[in-house]
Write a structure and sequence with these properties.
heterodimer, A: alpha/beta, Rossmann fold, Alpha-Beta Plaits, four-stranded antiparallel beta sheet, 12 helices, B: mainly alpha, abc type-2 transporter like fold, 15 helices
Chain lengths: 315, 380
């Protein structure tokens, strides 16, 4: 697979704050590449440098094998951008907005009409073509924002947190759309601080924090980086705290805690961990309510690598 | 062309302020010039009267004849109820009865109780009728005192009082050229406000960070984008300017000769300055409300300081010195010279100097706008 985007040693500072610090990334053709990190971690700055919207201090950026510069129009024509903030004109209708942004890339009127119609169909905005953005719901507005970015059928699509403040139904629709765009041949760069979204759609993920890349790989590869392979939570558990020692002594247990009638046990590897915990509770005649067994998430990866939870770092 | 088309589409939604400024100015212009050209003639007031002669003598008949002259006489029955109805419904303004013994009393020089009058309430019509009767009685008495008999005295009085003062209105002699000079004098404020209040918001919308970023990520060159915006701005400013010129031409067409060409050129340069200022302000400001404040402060401020609203000769020398840094000052100075206003005479050299300085302002404002646009692009 060809390399679509190559970022080497990227450094971008704002006075004393280093927003992006020696970042290296390589994104291959056909990938859905996730850039995961809390707010302020440097995701958007990286994207802005990638698009030449920001000057950077050091490093090189290549797209489609060519150096990316503000005047690299031959590269820009194959890039679609969907920014975090909705970028449409309130004075134009849905159709006019898509047509305008598509027209910045496609000058042929007949071809553009087809592209715009395809984008409207893709984003499910057929019923709203004559609406002005003000009349659209938050979810529809986000879909319009995406339609404006992908109407010219770009080879590389960059989405910077496109689902912020979107209802679950619209979020699913957007994520399904991104998968479809990728299936149609587009390489996608997706930034988010929602780990579930990144896990759901990305084939490869880079986790960045404080401007640095702290991990990169497929979600399976990333999860292998953590010691905690399984977390078992047992609710409404009526047990003596002294039993924790016996639970900690079970095979593969990393640590356990008991608080507010909730027992949480973390494991590192091993099979049948749940059965062993339940056996132990049964042996001591402990009653309990619900039982959950969770595999590690990207949040666990982030927690282990940085010492703070991804969600704690937000905002 | 894509940006140009977008400009026009957005402009269509933001035209209202320009339409209001232009429409109101033209309306005021038309109404002022219409009222100044109106011709009116004096027409004496005519009253509707009912007159009853109970004396029925030669003197009373002459009195009735005199009072009737110039008024409309309504024939009514001498009945109190009917007269009150007629007065109430204003069929008549006033009812006069010439009392019995009119001739004898007047012959003796007595002037009291000669008439009985009826009316509903005091007003201008009653006062006019009273005045006419008093004037007649006094004049007849005066002639009687000279030794004339009552009949001759009545005729002499009627003849004397028949002399009317000639009333004529002073015509507004302002010529079309004078009106045209006022038109061009107020133009900077209206042109500036109309251009900035519509063009500014359009440019602010086009310069919004989000859409600007998206545009800069596209394959369109910045020069094409700027060209589209400049073309749009030029189209709009030309259209607004043309509306004003056509309105002026329509109203004062006969005065559009010779030196008016300088005034037209003066207004073109000022329109260009307004467009440049719009581009500069919209590159620095991202809020409609702030833009409105700037329009009001700069528009009104420079108009007051530079002599748009108050003639320059009434402004203090300190104010005029300060106003030299504003293009409106040079606009008005040129306008004064073109139309020989404010104790100035037509001076081609003076006019060309003012126009040259204004062109300098236009160059500076466009350079500043270019730099501000460039800087805002880098900031984005």
């Amino acid at each position: 697979m060809e390399t679509v985007v190559k970022i080497s040693g990227l450094v971008k500072s704002y006075k004393e704050l280093t927003a992006v610090n020696d970042l290296d990334l390589e994104i291959k053709e056909g990938e859905v590449f996730g850039l995961l990190g809390p707010n302020g971690s440097g995701k958007s700055t990286t994207i802005n440098c990638l698009l030449s919207l920001l000057d950077f201090d050091k490093g090189d950026i290549e797209i489609f094998g060519k150096k990316m510069t503000p005047t690299a129009y031959d590269i820009k024509k194959d890039i679609g951008v969907i920014m975090q903030n909705v970028a449409v004109f309130e004075e134009l209708t849905v159709y006019e907005n898509i047509d305008y942004f598509c027209g910045l890339y496609v000058t042929d009127k007949a071809a553009r009409k087809q592209y715009v119609d395809d984008a409207i169909k893709f984003s499910g905005l057929e019923e709203f073509v004559k609406f002005r953005p003000k009349k659209l719901s938050g979810g529809l507005l986000r879909r319009l924002n995406i339609a404006c970015g992908i109407a010219h059928k770009p080879k590389l699509i960059i989405l910077d947190e496109p689902t912020v403040a979107v209802d679950p139904q619209s979020r699913n629709k957007i994520l399904e759309g991104i998968i479809e765009l990728n299936k149609n041949g587009a390489t996608v760069i997706y930034t988010s601080h929602y780990m579930e979204e990144v896990e759901q759609i990305c084939s490869r993920i880079a986790i960045i924090d404080k401007g640095r890349k702290i991990a990169e790989g497929t979600k399976e590869e990333l999860k292998k980086m953590v010691k905690n392979t399984e977390t078992i939570s047992i609710l409404a558990c009526e047990m003596e705290e002294s039993l924790l020692g016996e639970i900690n002594a079970l095979p593969h247990v990393l640590e356990s805690s008991y608080e507010d009638k909730k027992l949480v046990v973390h494991f590192s590897g091993g099979k049948h961990n749940l059965l062993r915990v339940l056996d132990c509770l049964q042996k001591h005649d402990v009653s309990f309510g619900r039982v959950y067994s969770e595999l590690p998430t990207l949040n666990d990866v982030f927690l282990e690598l940085t010492g703070t939870a991804l969600r704690d770092s937000e905002g | 062309m894509q940006v140009y088309k977008l400009f026009l589409k957005v402009l269509k939604k933001r035209l209202l302020p320009a339409i209001l400024f232009t429409g109101i100015f033209i309306l005021i212009l038309f109404s002022i010039s219409s009222s100044s050209s109106q011709t009116e003639t004096y027409k004496p007031s005519e009253l509707r009267l009912a007159i009853f002669d109970e004396d029925n003598t030669a003197a009373s008949k002459l009195a009735v004849k005199y009072i009737s002259k110039g008024n409309e006489i309504v024939k009514l029955e001498n009945d109190d109820d009917k007269l009150l109805d007629a007065l109430y419904y204003t069929t008549i303004h006033y009812a006069i009865t010439v009392n019995e013994g009119f001739e004898q009393k007047l012959s003796r020089g007595e002037t009291d109780d000669l008439f009985t009058v009826r009316y509903v309430h005091e007003n201008y019509s009653n006062a006019l009728a009273d005045s006419k009767m008093n004037e007649y009685v006094k004049t007849v008495s005066a002639y009687i005192k000279t030794g004339q008999d009552i009949e001759t005295a009545s005729k002499s009085a009627a003849k004397t009082l028949a002399v009317h003062t000639k009333v004529s209105y002073q015509q507004d002699t302002r010529s079309s050229e004078e009106m045209l000079s006022f038109f061009f004098q107020y133009l900077p404020y209206v042109l500036f406000s109309a251009v900035l209040s519509s063009l500014g918001p359009v440019l602010i919308i086009l310069n919004k960070k989000e859409v600007k970023d998206r545009t800069h990520c596209s394959s369109i060159k910045p020069s094409q984008e700027t060209l589209g915006k400049i073309l749009g701005a030029v189209t709009f400013v030309c259209a607004v300017w043309a509306v004003f010129m056509i309105a002026g031409l329509y109203k004062f067409g006969s005065a559009y000769t010779g030196k008016v060409g300088y005034a037209v050129a003066n207004s073109v340069i000022y329109a260009a300055f307004s467009a440049g200022l719009s581009i500069l302000v919209s590159a620095l400001v991202s809020n409609d409300n702030v833009l409105n404040v700037i329009v009001q402060i700069f528009g009104l401020g420079s108009s007051f300081l530079c002599g748009v609203f108050v003639p320059q000769e009434f402004l203090g020398s300190g104010v005029l010195t300060a106003a030299r840094v504003l293009p409106a000052y040079w606009y008005i100075r040129a306008n004064n010279s073109i139309f020989s206003l404010s104790d100035t005479v037509f001076d081609k050299g003076e006019i060309m100097m003012c126009l040259g300085i204004e062109i300098g302002f236009v160059a500076v404002i466009f350079a500043a706008a270019f730099i501000a646009t460039k800087l805002s692009r880098r900031k984005a």
